[in-house]
Specification:
Strand order of the largest sheet: 6-8-7-12-13-11-9-10
Structural class: alpha+beta
Protein name: Amidase
Domain Amidase: 26-444
Number of helices: 15
Largest sheet: 8 strands, mixed
Family: Belongs to the amidase family.
Distance between the termini: 29 Å
Order of helices and strands: HHEHEHEEEHEHEEHHEHEHHHEHHEEH
Pfam families: Amidase
């Protein structure tokens, strides 16, 4: 097992169970990779060196005694909006955060599956933006092109997996924050059904639009991590029926009716799909057609769905911002968003929440004609580091919507979506979303796995510094 890049999640678990490698060796290799790249990629906010090695030794004793759990001894990472006992949860903010006393439910379940948490990955301030940088920790960079962002807000998790520092990682997705960085780093990113992976100690994160999801190089690894992290706290308000994501990887999806949706949902600001990205997504649609699926252009009836997103998103920012130890250190844009959220928390928020049922009915009716929607994940390749960092609030919103107008409606709906790699534009990765109705993860995963078997996207790694990334892979 080579120490320079992480072996996949499933392969690591198999090798540990077969005694080919120790957990301490795998964890030590992951920690060495993190240390070697922290000055360049800057993927981690917290690195649990001593704790992770100690936990690996405990895992090795369990393995030697014949213990078997799905991820026993495997190193993984989680985003820094998730509680890990003994570590701070800064969520991209500056200031001194106290260590938390208990694991969040998703982390608790990963540990119950045997995983070793090697660290907490960087995220932009309160997860608001599709870039991962800020004064609290610097800039996290894209392993494919370090001058560009890996996206956000789960950019640290995406960079860590894409660079092979860890085999897989958890992120969270409130407006595409798993799918966007997955798209921009050539990964699988699963945004599951609301409640599939608990966000406890918050029963609802950002008024229900944010869910926890998985990032990995292969569909099987993303599904395995989803199975390990899935489940609910006793007090969770959303409790979808259990599923076996890994079983779906090997399942034939059947002949599907797929809607190719290239039109961005309506927003108050302009958004235009770049022709090069459009070409990659259309090419992926052609591959689906060649696999026997019926693909035709059609757009779901989004209507004014954006009016329901803003109150929920800004109210969530206000909730998180009220808990930071040093509010004066927050970005001016964060303070402005929190102020708006406090204004919208009453009647506008209640109206936005009530609108979800009608949206489910209207957009759900679209699935009477189609099984899956194929859409761009973003409208553009990843921007350069710093491109949005110093913008004002309105200019940031404009730039975000121009680059990332496609992902957020599924957060309002609470339904699953899976990013799959769609190729490269000028050496920069771009992706496409497979979007389904409620509890459709198995269908989306089986379709993604069918594409992966044909396109073999996981065989590509980011280039070394003296190499050039491929310009197209479809």
């Amino acid at each position: 097992m080579t120490p320079d890049r992480a072996v996949g999640l499933a392969e690591s678990a198999r090798a540990l169970a077969d005694g080919e490698v120790t957990s301490r060796a795998l964890v030590a290799q992951a920690l060495a990779r993190i240390e070697a790249t922290q000055g360049s990629l800057n993927a981690f906010r917290v690195v649990r060196t001593e704790a992770a090695l100690a936990e690996a030794e405990v895992a090795d004793k369990e393995l030697a005694a014949g213990g078997r759990r799905p991820l026993l001894g495997v190193p993984v990472a989680v985003k820094d909006d998730m509680n890990v006992a003994g570590e701070p949860t800064a969520f991209g903010c500056g200031g001194e955060f106290p260590p938390v006393a208990e694991d969040g439910e998703a982390v608790r379940r990963l540990r119950a599956a045997g995983a070793v948490i090697v660290g907490k990955t960087n995220t932009c301030e309160l997860g608001q933006w599709p870039f991962t940088e800020g004064p609290a920790f610097g800039a996290t960079r894209n392993p494919w092109h370090p001058e560009h962002t890996p996206g956000g807000s789960s950019g640290g998790s995406a960079a860590a997996v894409a660079a092979g520092l860890v085999p897989a990682a958890l992120g969270s997705d409130g407006a595409g924050s798993v799918r966007i960085p997955a798209s921009w780093t050539h990964l699988i990113g699963i945004k599951p059904q609301r409640g599939r992976i608990s966000t406890w100690p918050r029963g609802e994160s950002f008024q229900g639009i944010t869910v926890n999801g998985t990032l990995a190089r292969t569909v099987a690894d993303a599904a395995l991590l989803l199975d390990a992290a899935a489940g609910n706290h006793d007090l969770d308000p959303h409790r979808p029926p259990a599923l076996d994501a890994s079983e779906a990887v090997g399942r034939d999806p059947g002949r599907l009716r797929i809607a190719l949706s290239l039109k961005p949902p309506f927003t108050a600001l302009p958004a235009r799909l770049q022709p090069e990205v459009r070409a990659r997504v259309v090419q992926l649609a052609g591959k689906l057609s060649a696999l026997g699926h019926v693909v035709e252009e059609a757009d779901p009836p989004y209507g004014q769905i954006g009016l329901t997103f803003v109150p929920r998103a800004t109210a969530g920012i206000a909730e998180w911002a009220s808990e930071v130890p040093s509010p004066a250190l927050l970005d001016r844009r964060t303070r402005d968003a929190a102020r708006l959220g406090r204004l919208l928390t009453g009647f506008p928020l209640r109206v936005a929440r009530r609108a979800e049922a009608a949206l489910h009915r209207r957009i759900g009716a679209f699935y009477e004609s189609y099984d899956v929607i194929l859409a761009p994940t973003t409208a553009a390749p990843p921007p350069r580091v710093g491109a949005m960092l110093e913008l004002g609030g309105f200019a940031t919103d404009r730039a975000m919507i121009a680059a990332c107008p496609y992902a957020w409606p599924w957060n309002v709906l609470g339904w699953p979506g899976v990013n799959v790699p769609a190729g490269f534009v000028a050496g920069l990765p771009v992706g496409a979303q497979l979007l389904g109705p409620a509890n459709s993860e198995p269908l989306l995963i089986s379709l993604a796995a069918q594409l992966e078997a044909e396109l073999r996207w996981h065989e590509l790694w980011p280039p070394q510094q003296d190499e050039t990334a491929p310009t197209a892979v479809v």
